[in-house]
Amino acid sequence: MGVDFSFMPIEKRVQYVKDMVLALSNELQSEVLNEVTWKPWSAAQPHVNSQLMFRELVDCWHFLMNLMWATTAGPTSPEQLAQLLYEEYHAKHRVNVRRQETDYDGSGKCHACTRSLDDVGVDQRASRGPDVGEPSGGMVFVCGACGAHLNTEKVLGPEIIATHDSHRVTSTD
Ligand SMILES: [Zn+2]
Ligand 1: distance of its center to the CA of 95 in Å? Predict the structure, then answer.
């Protein structure tokens, strides 16, 4: 929407993301919050200005869409972006349901980048050998986000390996 991220230098893209995060945070704190009686010390009757708050949330959505455009290759219209959001949301929702069913305790994380492995997936690659603490041959499991070798006994449950393809997170970098 007006900004072509594919030609934007990475430094400018990072700055753009920071600007949008700041704008979104400010919109939530200054505008959305002011449409409810949130101050505990206020003597005003508790109320929610529903219609006005929704308009402020639309402004939030504008900044959130900008953030998504800055990180997503492909969607060119708000409708396409909404469709992608819909698909990613439901994929993540399935992950959350499975976490609840399996008493997720947050331990299934990559030791290197700390991302949850059931979010970013697990890949396989050839071992780089004992010099870097990997087996002397064969394939090893690696973090789908940063590629770090994973100690499968410690961090991987069978459900992560079995299901990671269904909710792979793609990167445009
Ligand atoms: Zn990682």
Answer: 18
Are 49 and 55 in contact by the 8 Å Cβ rule? The answer is: no
Gap from CA of 142 to ligand 1 centroid (Å): 8
Q: What pTM does this model have?
A: 0.68
| pLDDT tens digit sequence for 27-84 | 999 999 999 999 999 999 999 999 999 999 999 999 999 999 888 877 778 899 899 9
Q: Write out the residue range of the structural domain in which residue 129 sits.
A: 106-167
Nearby residues of 2 by Cβ (< 8 Å), 6 or more positions away: none
Q: In the predicted model, is pLDDT for residue 130 greater than 80?
A: yes
Asked if the structure places residue 94 within a domain, the reply is no
| Residue 148 belongs to some domain of the structure | yes
Q: Which helix (H) or strand (E) holds 126?
A: strand 122-126
How far away, in angstroms, is 42 Cα from ligand 1 center? 46
Residue identified by tokens 């060119």 is 76
Residue 148 Cα, ligand 1 centroid: separation in angstroms?
A: 5
Cα–Cα dist 36/144, whole Å: 42
- C-alpha 154/C-alpha 135 separation (Å) is 15
